Every structure is written in structure tokens, then in C-alpha cells.
What does this fold into?
Amino acid sequence: MTHPAPDQVPVLALEGVSKSFGAVRALRGVSLQLFAGEAHALAGENGAGKSTLIKALAGVHRPDEGTVLLDGEPVVFHGPADARDAGVAVIYQEPTLFPDLSVAENIFMGRQPRRSLGRVDHRSVRAAAAELFRRLGVDLDPDQPARGLSIADQQLVEIAKALSFDARVLIMDEPTAALTGSEVARLFGVVRSLREEGAAVLFISHRLEEVFALCQRVTTLRDGAWIASEPVEGLGEDDLIRRMVGRDLDELYPKLPAEVGAVALSVRRLTREGVFTDVSFEVRSGEIVGLAGLVGAGRSEVARAVFGVDRWDGGEVQVGGKPLKPGAPSLAMAAGLALVPEDRRAQGLVMGMSIERNINLTGLRATSRAGVMNRGGERSRAVDWAVRLQVKYARLADLVGTLSGGNQQKVVLAKWLATSPSVLIVDEPTRGIDVGTKAEVHRLLSQLAGEGVAVLMISSDLPEILGMADRVLVMHEGRIAAEIPRAEATEQSVMAAATGVTGRAA
Amino acid sequence: MTTTAEPVRVAVPPSGGLLDRVLKMRELAILAVLVLMLAATQIDNSAFLSQQGIKDLLLNATILVLVAVGEAMVVITRNVDLSVGSVLGITAFAAGDFLQGGGNPLLAVVLAVALGAAFGALNGLLVSIGQVPALVVTLGTLYIIRGVDSIWVGSREITASVLPSGFVDFGHNGLSALPYLAVLAAVVLVAVAYFLRNYRSGREFYALGSSPEAAGLAGVPVRKRILAAYIACGALAGLAGALYLARFGNVDSGTGSGYELTVVSAVVVGGVAFTGGSGSVYGVALGALLLTSINSVLPSIGVSSVWVQAIDGILLLLAIAVDRVLALRVTGVLRKRAAETRSARHG
Amino acid sequence: MADTDIGTGTDSATPFTARPRSFRIGDAVRWDTVVGALLLVLLVCSFSFVDNFGNALNLSFLIGNTLPIALIALPMTLLVVSGEIDLSVGSTAGLSGAVMGALWNAGYPIETIIPICLLLGVVCGLVNGLLVTRLGLPSLAVTIGTLAAYRGIAQIVLGANSVTDFPQQYLDFGSGRIAGTFIPYAAIPWAVLLLVAAVVLHATPVGRSLFAVGASEEAARFSGVRVKRLKLSMFVATGFISSLTGVFWVLHYASARYDNATGLELSVVAAVLLGGIDFDGGKGTLGGAVAGVFLLGALQNVMSLVNVSAQSQIVVTGVLLVISVLGPRVARQLSVAHARRRTLTASAPVPVATPAGHT
It folds into this structure.
């Protein structure tokens, strides 16, 4: 492994960069240096500020303090176009494509090859896209519209986009989250060859083994602050995790043994065409069942269908032994089901409403008398739960958007716990929240299970699944690929099932 | 798991993919309805498609085609301009007033276009800089421009008799069944279509209508493009105003009032989705032709003209409903196909 | 990621700073309050300085002419709060007026006709609502279509005729006023409807759900709100009130024509938006909407009295509409920029501050 000579000038660097969003300080005095021919990993928990850092490098956010250095010279990127012109390519976690346009146009938007009179050379656009896909070894049709592409294919289009302008700096925000093993191998091949050609690579992944396989240096962030930059060589996974989390893992997963009772949620042969197939499982009261799998494996979709937000095409869901009517969240709630959804900002909370209104949105009947709202009842219900979950707020009338991510998540939990559910489905319950709150959420889930609530926990955070779940269900491409008891669940066994290496019998 | 480094690639078809095929299908459908309707009318009333009949059909469509093409550019960027009727009215009067004072006809047209572009710029600035919903802003400028027009025009009226005869003739004559106005509209149509298809900035109109966030990340100058779309729309409404004057020779303070609804109908019937990013101006021109043809068809097959408005409305509803159902189908097909290729790839 | 774009309202962090509370004034001054205050100022000035404004005849004109807008503004406010819009209200009113005229010509008793017209309004609203909720079409496009369609049907029903010979006691109700006051009879049912709408929007589960749906339809759905049913019922209510307005229009102006209430939708939308109902949904108060309605109505009345031409009145309406959407947004952008500066200066000397949410 080559290490940069001490006198080498970084291609792109950040120096003492801070960035705030309202009251939330996403980055605090962070420095980072990217050298040509080096793959640099950015490690940190969800919410540590990785995405904000990337957006500062990509010209999406202008740092409040500190500077961006290009070849050692301070630069100001006024927008993504400036960064792109400087040779910085970014592949975001969530692909940003134009659904109505063809894949080829998506790759070259704003940079299409031109012929005489400045006209777009459609033939070259198509040919160049086809060539890029050949280089990536994928068989996408350049004329296909981006609408309807799977997340993995969308990700590949994004990678082709980055390749298309011979980027000097390639930034990848969890590009492998939705890819299968062979796709990851192919991607790494491309990245290595780019690196050997002299590109600087910044790589983010929650799969630590990928960091060790691909990168030479690693920078760790925690709660928006810089923790360390060091060579990967000689570093163990445990060391890295300790830097990311800032404490030992056991504290983070306070799982208490609970008495497992009767079946509370039973899902039988549930199918939604083209999304998930033949999904069956049970969750008993007092039990925490983890639902693992790659992004796009259909975990959240199953949760949505069970709760009734989406319809299902076949199968049956029973709560407490009674079948649920499909497609009716209000009836699911009445039956004792609660869903803390994946996307806190779009699904969990109404960002434009106050904390109080958000908490009470699940209890409109409970806080009204004869069809008219009872102001006192509303307030006391909200205060009660906000205090119980230790939400840090100024006034209940404040918009929920003014809270930090962790406190927002507590409001989502409050609004659902206030319905006293018998089955609680939590989808990525700790994504994007600080470590302290994360431990609180885990303690809460454990406590709920102890009180006899059946908990189904979907998470992409493997340590979380392994630390909290009594039993792990693993989904792969829309099916339950494995069911693993707590004692046998390891990173290896779960990942193997999630990537389709092992079958049902794991 | 497959380990092929070089998978067998589907040969790239020489031109157009699924996307283009769907779009063309959409345009062909309107064309088919139009042809069927005209043919049926012709069978019922053999005088319908006489030379004069065809000329009238084209003349009637010209002005709507121009305004609808401009509107389409705005709708493609996921915005809307409701002030086009007011702009058409005020530019028509401005051109007439200029000609009445002995102005040059060509200059009058340029004046109308420039005035229209100025109003377009006003709309565009309010929408792009103020970042307020286009519908509301242009509803406001609809009122404002109409009001200014009314104050300026008062009870005055421009009639054909005060206009230069060459100008009026230009509005009526043509090469046999092909009116000059229609030729002009066709030239504009082809130019706009060519621009939208073959220039980076034209493609960026579609990009930012398709996904404003992605457009921002791709470095598309979003505000500049939106402003450009509004200016183009205003300029075309201005041109249509001048041609309105040439065609009808009669302009007062109510000219073009309520026209925005017809224009929006033509755009939507022509296959440009309200959600932006899709459709073509050729489809829009066909939509405009279809709407204006209905107005001519109904009387000639003996249906009272009171039916026209109801049919226009129902046609608009049908168009958006069919589009919606089609879009759902296409998405379904694409998803299924993607799933199949994916499982084939990993199978 | 979740840790970005939390750029709105940052007041919970202010306890850090020693800044005076005056910063909150910007938040406390809400748009609907501003509109209400403007209305009050306008009324006071008009009573003091404008000749003939205060006499009973003029006031009853003002109210009578504003009532159709005020009536439809009630359900429209609820609809816009839920994130949808109905542009077909004027046509629905015109259609129910046209049907009223046609049935009266056909010899039906008016006691039968009026319920039929109201039922028709319900059907019109149902059509709009079903197209929007079942097919998932944008309400703007749907109701532009039904705007044309309903008006077209009105034209088919009544043609160019106008019907004027309705029973005198009904016409009296439509145009008369309560003895000894300037208040039209029709203002009484409106007041009742206002009360109902205000309670529904601001003090019932339905109202809470409407705000949630308008602010974030997805989050509302994930909270168990029955979004489609809610929206459908709002469209139906709007259709119903529109047809009621159509009936009132016929009686008030003693004329049923197919083109009654043409363009009414624009006035209603303008008034509602002026009253601070956010076009994107989720924000606004019924009081604001009513203030907006009467601000526009009174302004037009005053301008007529002081001989401002009808044309200039149109310009004023348009300018007000643009300002009503531009104003709050510009103010918000300024306050966000301000908040950002404030956070910077506040946090600079405190290197390790816990993010957000301090009590």
C-alpha cells in the first residue's frame, strides 16, 4: 500500500470546517485530506456528520467556518456545478436521477457531447453511455428511462455518471448498501482501477470489512467532530468501532431477558407482487425480533403492508389472533399495532406541525369529547409522553423540525407508545441519531419487551440487530432467507443470508 | 452467482427506446382521434374538408398552437403560466395601437413579441426568485395584466379598417389551403421542438421538470432555465397576440379573456404532464388542433355549439385520466422488466 | 440524511444567548393577524372618510355581493389546508343555477328544485373527489377540466335563456335584509356555516387531520389518518356549498343563467390565499380566510365608491394576490437568514454545544 509522501499536496481537503443547520451543529471543526491514488474511508455512526461533510466537499453546502482546499489552494464552491467542474464526482446514498429521461441522458445531463452549432450529439451520448456500462460490466439499455430502475441499477447509473467525467475525486456515500456481492466486487474493481489511474477516492460504508478491503486511510467522525485520521493498516475492526461509538458496545445494547408469551403478530404467506413474496413469521409478546437484510430487500415494504399503508396481494396478517383487514392503518392501530417508520422526516412526523400536534396525531379520538377536541386532554397526553421519553424541547408548541434528530425520533416513539400498542414495529429506529439517544432508544425497546410488547425491529445496523434481537429474520430479494436464533446470529451468518449466499436452512 | 466480466449485452437499437416509443404512441393516439373525427365529419358532410374548410381548420388552430407551445415549455419545467390570455390580449392591442398610428407591420409584431417577453420575464422572476407557487403568481399576473390592459384600452377598440391592408391580408391569405399564419406557427413549432430535443439547455428544461433536486445536483442553472421558459412563453403569447390581430382584426379590452383554460387543456390533452419533465410540443400542437377542430366539427355535423365547452372539459379529464392509467402501467412494466433482468443477472 | 436541512425556526436554541425577546416578534406577527388588522384599518378609514360607505344600503350591498365568495371560501379553506384545490366551484354554482332555472321552467315546485340542485352539487364534488383520490390525479388539472365541463353542461341545460320569475318570497330572502339593519337574511345561514367550519377546522379530529394531511400526506397516512376519505368528503362539502351558492346567486340577482358566477373561483382562491392559507397546504386559519374575503370585498366596495374604475380594482386584486404569496415567503427567507447569523454568533464562543432542543 502506498502512503502519501509527507510533502504531497492533497487534491481536495477540508480545514476546520463547521456547519450548522438551525440549532443543529452537523460539523464542528472537521479536517480531512484526500490524496491522489488513495482510497480514504470516512467512518462514523449514522448522524455523525458524514453526509454533511460530503455535501460540503460537493458544493451543496457552503461551510459556515473553515475552508475547502483544492490542490492546496482555498476554493469556494458556489454550487454542485463548481465542484463538478473541479473534477469532484459524488455518488449519493439515494440516487438522484431524472425519472422521465433515459439512462444515457441522466449520465450526461448538462455535459452532453455536442456536434456542429452546439447541438447535442444523441448518437455519441448513447454510445458513450453504452461504453461506460461495458466498462462497468452491466447490461443496462442506455435508452431505458430511469423510472422503474431498481435501486442497484440506479446506483450503477450514478457510478457511470461519475466515471463519465474522469473525476479526480470520487466520493461515494454508501454505494454498496443495495448491491449484491458480485456487484460490489465489480464496483471495487472499477474503483481500484480509478485509484491506480491517480484518482482520490472518499468511501463511506457501514460494512467495515469493505473499508478494510478497499481503503488505505480512514477518518472517523463522531457527533459532528473529528476523532482521528490514520492508516487502515494495523487497525482492527474493534478499534474502529470504539472510535466511532466512543464507548464499548455492551452499554449500547442493554438487552434484558424478557418472558416470551403468546403469539402477538402472525404473518402468513404475505405477498405483494414484485415487492416481496411468501413472507411468513411470528412475533411473540415480550420478544424482540430483528429483521435484517440489504437495502431494497423488501423489509420496510413488509412492515408497510402489515401496518396497512400498502395493500398486499395474498396472505394473511393476524394481531392477537384476529385477522387484519388489508390496507387500513386505522384498523391496524385499533388492533394494537404501531409502526415507527423508516423515514422519520417524511413518514414519522409532520415536520410543519408542533411537537404536541405530532404526538396527538395518533390519539385524536382519545383526546376529543363528542367530536370536539379537549385542549387540556391534548396537552396532558403530549406532556406526559414527552416527559416519559425525556424529549428535550423548549415549548410543546414549537415545530417538531426544531428538534435534533434524536429528539425527533423520541417524538415518533412517543406518539406511538401513547397508543399503548401490543405490537410495535420499528423500522431503522436509530438511523441518524446521536449515540446517547441511541442507547436510550435501545433501553426503551428492551423495557417495552419486558412489559410484554412484541417488537419487530428492522435495522441495517448489524451490531444493533445482533445486540438487541432475540431472533433474527433475514430477507433477501423479497423473501425470508433465514431465521437465526440469537445464539447463532453473527455478522457472518446474517450477511451470508442477506446476500443470498446461504439458503433458508441457515 | 455469475462471474461473467463481460455479460452478453443487448444490442443498442439505432434510435429510440421504450421511452420514445411510449411518447410516440401518445402522439399517435391524438393523431388517430383527430383523423377519425375529421374523416367521420367528412363522410357526414362532404363540404367539410374543402380547400376553404381545411384553411379554416388550420387558421383556427394557429393561435392556440403558438400559445400552447409556449405554455408547454413552462409546464415541462413543472410550472404553469395562467397569464397567457391576458398577455395575448394586451400585446394584440399594443400591436393594433401601434399600427393604427401608422407603424410598420413587422415592427408591430416585434413590439408584441417584446412586450410578451417582458411579461414572461416578470412571471419568471416572481416564480424563480420569489420561489412562490407558479399557479398563484400567474393567477395574480393574470389579473394585473388584464387590469392594466383594461385601463389602457378603456372602451376603445381596434378594427380591421384601421389596420394596414397588407397586415390583414397576411392574416387571411395563404398558399392555396395553407395559410401564412399556419406556416409561421409550424416554423415556430419545429424550431421549439428542435431546440428542446437537440440543445443542452432544452434538455435541461426536461431535467428540471423531471426532478428539480437532481437538476440542482447536476449543476443545471434552475432559476435561469425557469426564467427562460417563462420568457419564451410570454414571447410566444405576444406573437400570438400580433397574429390574433392580423387574423381577426378586432381587439378590445376583453380579448383573450379566459383563454388560459383552453391553452392548458391543449397542453395536457397533447400529452405534457402537469408534473413536468415529459411530453413533446408536437403532441401539444396536435392537442391544440384537436381542440379547435372540435369547435368546427360540431356545428358542421349539426350539434349545437353549446356542447363545445362541455366536450372540451370532458376531453381534458379523459386525457389526464388516460395518461395516469398509462403511466401506472408503464411503471409496472418497467419494474417487472428490471426485476426480471436483475434476477437473470444474479440467478 | 436526517441531520440536514433543519433550517426552519430555530427558536428553541435561543436560551443560549442573551438576545432580547424582541426576536420573537417576527414569529408572533402572523399573516392572518396582519390581514385582520388591515381589514379593521380599512373599515375604520372607510367609515370615517369615505362618503356613503357607512349607510345601511351600501353595507348590505357590500355583504350581499361578498356572500357568494364568503360562502365558498369556507369549504375552500378546508380543502386548501388539506393540500388540494377546487377551481370548479364557479361552474358548479353556475350549473346548479342553470338546473334551477330549467326545472322551474319545466314547472317543478321550488321546494323540490332546491334539494335537487344541492344534490347535484354533491355529485359534482363527488366527481372531483373521486378523480383526485381514486386515480391520484392532481386536483388542479381535474378541476380545470370540470370547470369547463360543468359550465358546458350548464350551457347545454339552459342555453342562452335566463329565468327570472321565481316566487317572490324566495327572491325576497335572497335580496332582502333583516328589518332595521343592514344585514341580509342570507348572512344568517352563512354565520351558522362559518361557525360549523371554524369548529371543524380548529377544534375537531377532522380539522387536526386536515392540517396533518396538508403538511405531509405521507406522515398523516402513517399515523392512521384516512387521507382519501377525508379529501373526498372535503370535495363533496365544497360541491355542496358551491351549489348552495348557486341557488343563492339566482335568488339574490333574480336571474338564472348558465354563466352565473363565472370566474368566481378566482375571487375565492384569491381571497383564501390572501387570508394566509398556504397554497401548499397545512397552514392557515379560517379567521384569516374570512378576513381575506372581506378585505377584498370591502376594498372593491370602497374603490367603487371613490370612483376607482373596475379595471383598476382588478389590478389591485392581482397585486394583493401576488403580495399575499410573496410576502410570507420573503419574510420567512429573511428570518431564516437571520436565524443562521444568530446561530453563528451564538455558537462561536461555545465550541462544544449539545445540538438543539435545550429547555
